From TrEMBL:
It comes from Rudaeicoccus suwonensis. The chain crosses the membrane at residues 12-34, 40-59. The lineage of its organism: Bacteria, Bacillati, Actinomycetota, Actinomycetes, Micrococcales. This is Uncharacterized protein DUF2530. It comes from the Bacteria. Pfam families: DUF2530. Keywords: Membrane, Transmembrane, Transmembrane helix. The keyword Transmembrane applies.
């Protein structure tokens, strides 16, 4: 059985949050990406950003990692 790989979860979450911010800026900057049938796209980016920040806060407080398991 191979040993578990150490992953910096906070760094992974930071990168994900930055990607959601960039996606939100792009969607808001290009009008065709948030008009008509795509009106929900900015809210998808906002939801990803909010959930990412909540996950970041959860792991930062020491929960959500396997070190205490």
């Amino acid at each position: 059985m191979p040993s578990p790989v150490h992953v910096d979860v906070l760094r992974v979450q930071q990168i994900g949050i930055v990607i959601w911010v960039v996606a939100l800026v792009v969607v808001l900057a290009v009008p065709s990406l948030h008009r008509g049938d795509h009106h929900w796209w900015p809210w998808c980016c906002v939801a990803g950003l909010v959930l990412g920040l909540m996950g970041y806060a959860y792991v930062r407080r020491g929960r959500g990692n396997a070190s205490a398991a």
